[in-house]
Amino acid sequence: MAFDYPGKNRAYEAALQRTKECLSNGDVENGTLYLDKAITLSAELAANAAIPEFQARFKKENAQLLKIKGMLGKGENPFRKKATVSNGDGAKGGDGKAQKPEEGENVSGFFSTEIPTTTLADVAGLEEVKEQIRINVLLPLKDPEVFYNYKKDAGARIIMYGPPGCGKSFVAEAIAGELKCHYAVITSDQILDKYVGVASKRIKAVFDEAEKYDNVLLFFDEIDALCASRDSDDSAHTKDILTTFLTCMSGFKPKDKSLKVIIGATNRPWAIDSALVRGQRLDTAIYVRLPDRKAREFFVKKEWEKFANIYEGSDLTMDYAIDALDGFSGADIKTILDQAKTKTLTRVLQDNLPKGQYYKVSKADFDSALAAHHNPVTAEMLLRYEAFGKGMTE
Ligand SMILES: Nc1ncnc2c1ncn2[C@@H]1O[C@H](COP(=O)(O)OP(=O)(O)OP(=O)(O)O)[C@@H](O)[C@H]1O
Ligand SMILES: [Mg+2]
Hints:
- The protein is an alpha/beta fold and 394 residues long.
- The chain has three domains: 5-73; 108-290, P-loop containing nucleotide triphosphate hydrolases (Rossmann fold, 3-Layer(aba) Sandwich); 293-376, Helicase, Ruva Protein, domain 3.
- The chain is 52% helix and 7% strand.
- The protein is built from 16 helices and five strands.
- It has helices at residues 5-24, 28-48, 52-73, 127-142, 144-149, 168-179, 188-191, 198-210, 223-226, 236-251, 293-306, 308-311, 318-324, 330-350, 363-372, 379-393; strands spanning 157-161, 182-187, 216-221, 260-266, 284-287.
- The protein has a five-stranded parallel sheet, sandwiched between helices.
- The chain is globular and about 80 Å long.
- The termini are far apart.
- The structure holds adenosine-5'-triphosphate and magnesium ion (MG).
- The site of magnesium ion has 4 residues, from helix 6.
């Protein structure tokens, strides 16, 4: 039987988690049982993972776990929390703000356990974006020597901006798929917290976790919420988060020709603190724009090919749909095509058609779905992105 990588990996992560829980509570007996399980599973994963990078990671973790086992044998427990004064509900920090009771930040869940299968070939249009990504991200990994000769690190830092639903997250996933590397999606709501200091701690934990991997891509979604401009929000809380983020980012460097990629994404690039987009930080800004005609053709063709029987012979032509969808994002195009199909299906059900008989998706179904769809992307928004892009290049 084939090696069940996802299943084993889940079991391993669970054993690891339970080990940490038990040991940090001082329950060495059960902690040791889970630790033994994690040691066995990490050895199996190291021997059987299909990707050499994963094999190396599990081997490294296996060695670390064996080290912990040795420490426990000597009566040392590296997870035992140092005694902390309980803050309680009404506790205040030095600046008078509420502090969250001490706890470890477990961020391993942000990291994918599997390599994404999406690649740039799945991305509709965005040819300029793909080209920039090839130069800034993919080439360095393919031939790191060339970059090292020029004293450049094979670590890419880019920020993608543009209207919602145009593929920023999708492209980030495709990059991880192309690089066949570990991938973490970190959204601002997973990091931000009402308690002072927690967000910074989480950011540090993410970068610490990322250090475990040789080749890794960190994708910070809604980065404007994390690195808000100090002009608009100069609270100590916001500054603390930004400083931590910038510090962690500058320490996150490729070693021994490994790849460390950081990608940020935002719908509001103007709301980001300028320190984030200066040289050596997220210095390559890429505009992920609305789909052009070629990109819209990609979506429509794919739909027609997938559901040929409900489109062939209809009065709705591909050309008509491609033109009519001008101004909509990829996500909206998908929704409109889906809504048109729902309208056709509703007619089939209402008319109680005999089994095996069906209507084609008509031009009227499509038009009605299109008319009912509210386009969240406005002309004003697009002008603002264009102006921002111009400002970046001036
Ligand atoms: N250019 C594209 N190529 C292929 N699929 C796309 C493209 N743009 C959007 N999509 C589809 O729309 C979905 C939503 O896109 P995605 O989440 O990547 O947009 P986004 O730019 O990150 O939006 P947001 O700003 O709201 O986070 C994707 O999962 C994908 O299915
Ligand atoms: Mg997104």
